[in-house]
Amino acid sequence: MHQPALTALTGFDPELAGLVEAEAKRQHDKIRLIASENYVSTAVLEATGTVLTNKYSEGYAGRRYYEGQQFIDPIETLAVQRAKDVFGVDHANVQPYSGSPANLAVYLAFLQPGDTVMGMALPMGGHLTHGWSVSATGKWFRAVRYGVTKETGRVDLDEVRDLARAERPKLIFCGGTAIPRTIDFPAFAEIAREVGAVLVADIAHIAGLIAGGAHPSPVGHAQVISTTTHKTLRGPRGAMLMSDAEHAAALDKAVFPGLQGGPHNHTTAGIAVALKEAAAPGFRDYAHAIVANAKALAESLVERGFDLVSGGTDNHLILVDLESKGIAGKPAAKALDRAGIELNYNTVPFDPRKPFDPSGIRLGTAAITTRGLGVEQMPQLAQWIDDTVTAANAGDEAGIERIAAQISELLAGYPMPGWA
C-alpha cells in the first residue's frame, strides 16, 4: 500500500484513493527508465503533503504581501541556503513552479520580444523552451538553433561559435532534454563571452549528477543556471534558478512579480529536504552509481546490436535509434511498457520519421538506481529490452507477458519509497 498511508483519502474518496494506490503499485512493479523521472524519499513525500499547501506567500522572505509568514520565511530561506551550498552559487531562487516557467523567467529577465536567443534544436536533443517554434519562446523571440553532427551525434562547438558570431544572440542556452554526453560548459562560456551573450546552463536532467560530482558544474562558467528539482536531483516536481550575484535581482523580479504569484510552499519544503539529501555523503555514491549503471546498460545494448546516438553515454541518459531493429520508437515503447519496462519514444538526430512516431527511444537510470539496481543487473535488463523488441516485431504477446512476470519477480526484492 501507499506510504504514507492514505487513510483519510480512502475514507472520503475511495475512487481517487484507489487510483493513487494503483499508480504506486505500477511504479513499484515496473522498471522505470524514463530519464526525467525518479522516486522521491518518504521524507520528501511527507513534506509535500503538509499544511504548507494552505498558505499564500507572494513575495520573498522578509518582503511578503500577506501576513502569517513566521514559519514560511525560514522554510524558503532554508531551501535557498541549501541550494547555494550544494551547487556553490551566489544566488538561488526556489520559487519557479517547474522547469518551463523557470526558463520563461530567464527570457523575461534578460530579453525583449524579438531579441535573438540561441539553443539546441529540439530534434537534436534540446528543449522546447530553448526557442523551438511551437513554444512561446520560439514565437516571441528570434530563435537560432545549433545541433549535433551526423557522424558523431555530438555538438560541434566550432559550428556553435560560427553561428553565434553570425547571429549575435543575447542569450545562449546549453543543455537539453536528450543529451547523452558531457556538456562542455567552459567552451560555451567562451563563445558567449565573445558575442556578449548571457549563458544559461539548463541542467534539469543532470542537476543531481552535478550535485554528486558525477558531471562537471556550470558554476563559474554560466551566469544563469536553470534546473528542475526532480529527475536526478530526486526532489519534488519544482524548479530553481541560480546565478552569480550580478544577475540575481533581474531573475528574482522576473519570477515574481513577472510571471508568478505565490510560491507553492509545500513544494519548497520538499525541495529543502531533497537538497539536504543531496548534501549527504551517500548522495555522491548515488550520483556516480547512476552513471555507472547507464554506461553498463549502454554497453550491454550495443552488444545486442542496438544503435546508440553518439555511441554511448557519459551521464544518466541513453538515446537509442531503433531503425536497425526494424521497429519505430512508439510501438517499441508501448511493447516495453507491457513488458514492465517504462520509457519514452523519442526523436533522434536527423530522424526521418515524425515527432509523434519517431525512430528512437530514450532511457535513463536514475530511478532504477534509487531502487538499488546495480551494474550487475544491466546485462539482464538489456536482454529484456532486446527480447521485448524481438517479441513485438513477431507479435508475440505471450513472450512479452513472460518478461513482465520476470521483471515483477526481480523488483519484489528492491523496495520503493512510497510503497510497502
UniProtKB/TrEMBL annotation:
GO terms for molecular function: glycine hydroxymethyltransferase activity; methyltransferase activity; protein homodimerization activity; pyridoxal phosphate binding. It is an enzyme of class 2 (transferase). Pathway: Amino-acid biosynthesis; glycine biosynthesis; glycine from L-serine: step 1/1; One-carbon metabolism; tetrahydrofolate interconversion. The modification N6-(pyridoxal phosphate)lysine is found at residue 231. GO terms for cellular component: cytosol. Residues 11-385 form the Serine hydroxymethyltransferase-like domain. Its EC number is 2.1.2.1. Pfam families: SHMT. Its cofactor is pyridoxal 5'-phosphate. Homodimer. Belongs to the SHMT family. HAMAP family: SHMT (MF_00051). This is Serine hydroxymethyltransferase. It comes from Kutzneria albida DSM 43870. The lineage of its organism: Bacteria, Bacillati, Actinomycetota, Actinomycetes, Pseudonocardiales.
